[in-house]
Amino acid sequence: MSNQASIPVIVNGAAGKMGREVIKAVAQASDLTLLGAIDTTPQHQGKDAGELAGLSEPLEVPISNQLEPMLAYVAGERQMQPGVLVDFTHPDVVYNNIRSAIAYGIRPVVGTTGLSPAQIQELSDFAEKASTGCLIIPNFSIGMVLLQEAAVRASQYFDHVEIIELHHNQKADAPSGTAIQTAQLLAEMGKTFNTAMVEETEKIPGARGSLADEGIRIHSVRLPGLIAHQEVIFGAAGQIYTLRHDTSDRACYMPGVLLAIRKVNQLKSLVYGLEKIL
Question: What is the pLDDT of residue 182?
Answer without folding.
Answer: 96
